[in-house]
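Blinded run. Sample ID left blank on purpose so nobody reads anything into the name before looking at the predicted structure. Input follows.
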Amino acid sequence: MTPSARVQAAIEILDLVIASARDEGPPADIIVQAYFKTRRYAGSGDRRAVRELVFRAIRRSGEPPPSGRVAMIGLAGEDERVAAAFDGSPHAPPKIGSREKGSDVALLPQWIEHELSALVTPDEWPALLDRAPLDLRANVARTSREALVAAFEQAEPTPLSPWGLRLPPDSRVTEHPAFTEGLAEVQDEGSQLIALACGAQAGQRIVDLCAGAGGKSLALAAAAGGGAEITACDTSRARLSKLPDRARRAGADIATRLLNAPREAEEMLDLQGTADVVLVDAPCSGSGTWRRNPEGRWRLTPERLDRVIALQQRVLDLAAPLVKPGGRLVYAVCSLLTREGADQAAHFLGRHSGWTVQEPLPSIGRWDGAGKMLTPAHDRTDGFFIAYLTRS
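Blinded prediction complete.
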C-alpha cells in the first residue's frame, strides 16, 4: 500500500469505529482486525501503519468526530506526511478543500471533566491516553513470577503486584509456551491488585459476582493455591462460557453459574450468608481503560453513565446478602469517575447497616472516600476504584 492508500484505509476504519461507538458495537481493535481480513493484499507493515494512524486520530479527539475524514484532516494539521497523503491519486483520499476543517484536539469530552475524581487532576489527563504496556499475571499455583520474567524477552516485574510482569506494548504472547500451558494470563496490574485485595485463602468460599470471562476468578484460584471454593457468576452466557477452558488450562477448579435477570437473587439463595469473600467487579464506564480503548470516550454519554450507575447499585444490593458475618465485600470498577467509585461506596454504606471500611491495599493507591483509587499517572496501572467492606 502507498502512504496515501494507508491514510484512506485509516479514514474508512475510523468511519466504522465512529459508527460502532455510537451503536455500542465492537471496539476499535476488533474493527481493525476485521477490516484487514478481507484485504489480504495489505502486508504486516501496512497493517501496523494503518492501525497507528487510526489510534493517533482517536487519541487526539476527545469528542467523536463527524467522520473519519474529519478526524484524519485533524491529524494532518499536525503531521506533514499525513497532509501530503491527501493528493487525490488512485486509492488516496481527495485533496483537502480550502474550507474543510479537521477535528479539534481534546483529551476528554468536556462533559466528563466534572465527573472525574478530584484525584485525577488535569496534569494526570495525558496519562489516561498513553499507550499501555502488556501486563501478565503469573499463575502462582504452578510457577513463579521470577521464572516467567526469565522466560519472556524484555519482561520486568510489575512494581505493585507480586504476581505481575510487564512487557512492551503490542508484545505477542498467545503462542508462547508459558501462555499455552496456563502458566501466565494477560491481566493489567490494576486487575491483579483487585484480586490481591480479596485476600483469597484456601478453605474459603468466594463468589465472583460479575465474573465475565473469569480473569479475576483465575487470579483468586491461583492466590488461594487451588484450595478455595470459587463460584464465578455472570448474566452473559457468551462471556462466562470462556472460563471453563481457561480454568482447565490454568489447572483451576472454578464453578460457573449463569444468572438470569431479574431473578438473580432467587438463583443465589443457596449462597446467602455463606461467602467469605464476594467480589463485585461491576460493569462500569471503562474510563480507567481509555489508554487501551481510547474510543471508549466516544461511547460514553451521560445517559449511558446513569444506566451503568443504576446497575452497579443493583449488583451491590444483590451481593450484600451473600456475605457471611465477618466476611468481606470487595467492590471494584475500572473507572475514574466519582459517581461510580467513592459515591457508590458511600451510598451502599448509607443503605446497609453493619458494614465497616477496611484498607484494601496498604501502601498502594490513594484514598478516595471509602476506597482506594489507582490511576495511570500515579500508579502506572489502568484506572480503578477499590473498596473493601467488612460485614459485622
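Unblinding after everyone has recorded impressions. Residues 5 and 90 are 8 Å apart (CA to CA).
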